[in-house]
Amino acid sequence: MNNKMLAIITVLTLAACGGGNSSNRASGIAVDKATVQVISNRPDLVSAGDVLVEVVLASADASDELVLLRNNTDVTSVLQSTPDNPLRLLGVVEGLSVGENTISANIGNSITVVNHPSGGPVFTGPHIQPWECQEGATDEDCNQAATYQWLYKSTNPLLAGLQPYDLENPPTDVATTTTDNGETLPFIVRQEIGYQARDQYTIFTLHKADESWTPIQPQSQWNRRLLVTHGGNCRGDHDTSSARTDDYAGTIPGNPAIEQSYITALSLGWSVLSTAQLNLGHNCNLSYQAESLMMAKERFVEQYGELRYTVGTGCSGGAITQNMIANAYPGLYQGLLTTCTYPDVMSTATQFADYHILLKYFGLKAENPVAPTTRDGTIFTPNQQNEIYGHLNGIVNASLADSALFGEAVEPASNCGGITPEERFNKDTNPGGVRCDVLTFMENMIGARERFPAEDPLRDHWSKIEQDLGYGFAGFPLGNEGVQYGLLPLQQGIISPAQFLALNTNIGGLDPSLNVTQARLKPDYPALPNAYRTGILNTIVNMDTVPIINMTGPDPGAAHDSVHGYWVRWRLERELGHRDNFVHWGGATALIGDANYMNQSLIAMTSWLDAIEADTSATPLAQKIIINKPADVQDQCNGVPGVMCPEAAMLVFGTPRTQAGADKYGDQVQCQLKPFSRADNYGLGNTVWQEEDWAALEQTFATGVCDWSKRPLEWQRTVTWLNYQDDKGDVITGGQQMAPAKFPAAWASPAFSKTWEPTWLQP
């Protein structure tokens, strides 16, 4: 009997007797000759039945003794030594059962690995139902074997993008490319398409068809960098969809004369990953997005190899996703490339909710978008309305935001994928039907409406439908209580006291079905505090450990205000005292700045991250980002380095809340209140106000007016890495922070993860 067989028998015997490392020590067996860790994810978040394991040997002799066990089964054969270090062994351990597993070495430590189904959930809580899987799915979790196809870049300039490649009959117009590590090869790409978390993922790699690729020995052209693409808008579909890769997916058409940045990345040796759930226009739930990205990164590492770093890119909803994940689940990205930028979902929703309420007050309809007469008969000119909106083209901007974004996203009776008209909510015919609004879609994060909230325990806050059904709908975190719409235009003499009084007395609020109510809108609990806690209102407080290049152009007046990118910058300055990890590129092209910025920013971000990666000191990552920012990676305006475009040139406008006196940061979901006072500045002086007008204002603002000098009501720091399910799989509304753990070693080079050990990225 050889030594290895004897070691296996000994370990199995000890395991059967309940022995662990302490038993090994008692038996005189060495326990310090090998160190085992899982590196493709943290051990308790593993999915799909496999995990990449690292074993580091103390000496070459230890390899003869080593036995690696998965739940008492010998899996040593999966291990291979890495080319650069024969004492470092890697291998993908398969066959993990759902739940707890043990991976152990006979001459080292053991690890408990918690494996989750390929369809999830891992940390998001119970699956949203109903759900429609893709054709070909093998089970209700939409699992389906991965498929592969081949693509290539043509030398024909009329053939943009990637074309189908036939391995049996190769085309003759295959372009060549030289990667950033200097290797020249045919521009041939392999695409993997699979399903995780009940939705599609895709992976692109510049690939040599005649060579093998393993996570231990990837092909030489790969530079170990990963680009992640996203999609725009904000919806909550109930079915599988396709991953998006185009730069402005779901927002604006790309320029066929400009190469998509993911193809540029491939040409340089990057890999590219996307998932359907990273398309905000399909999945407007931050926790689902983060889980999808985490699972896809684990899959990538286990199939293709260890990463140096991951960079996100995207416009509109693609910027929202990057910003929210970087703040709430830091470490999934090491760099952000954002354009058409919003900081998050809920800041935008607040502005657009004000638009919706104002549009209803002004009586604007598609067939009459500039009606001068409101529902109470007060006349406002188009210019006065624009001033109240805070935008040069406020009427148009508000109308587009309402019809194309807010109305569909928040309307429970709107269309959503996977739900038939018969299944969908209808307040008259099917009040218990599926609600397709995004608030319902993110209910695990914000929670259902409290019926008798603590601040008003004697009043039933549920609608008649909720009372009849016996349960509350998803909470609405927004409120407009105390907002003095048009205050600045009043003070500037643009609107009259009579107009100001009529507007604020009659503006009202919204009910859960977006119907206008006489009373102002009060935010629901626990939705309001949970908006800040979970990160769907981005507090920015955890974003100092990620470099950002933000691209912007003049405000197009199409519900993508240029000010939204400034919100990110301004919040960084407020919370961190600087924005040194944030580079701002302005340009003349509306919304995006310049059509070449996407590709240029990829190159700039590469140089920045490479410099950080080379810094192996113990300096905290937030400081490394600043210290190692290359001199040529800086603000620019129309190609002029070192300066920011003037806000006037970028057409940076305000919002209805800044026109009501709010601060510039855009995160006042609901203000704190102070008593109404006639001594405040109400325009032309007290002589123009009649006593009955003052009385009407005092009644309108009986609970107070906004105190914009204070933090928003219920503001709190975003808590990182929240888990939304307990040990039984039941939902934890608002989430609970995960226990400390080491950063997954294969997600990024040590320079990006060292400062996060041993805690799991706590705020």
TrEMBL record:
Entry protein name: DUF6351 domain-containing protein
InterPro entries named in the record: DUF6351
Record domain DUF6351: where: 36-712
Short name of any one Pfam family annotated for the protein: DUF6351
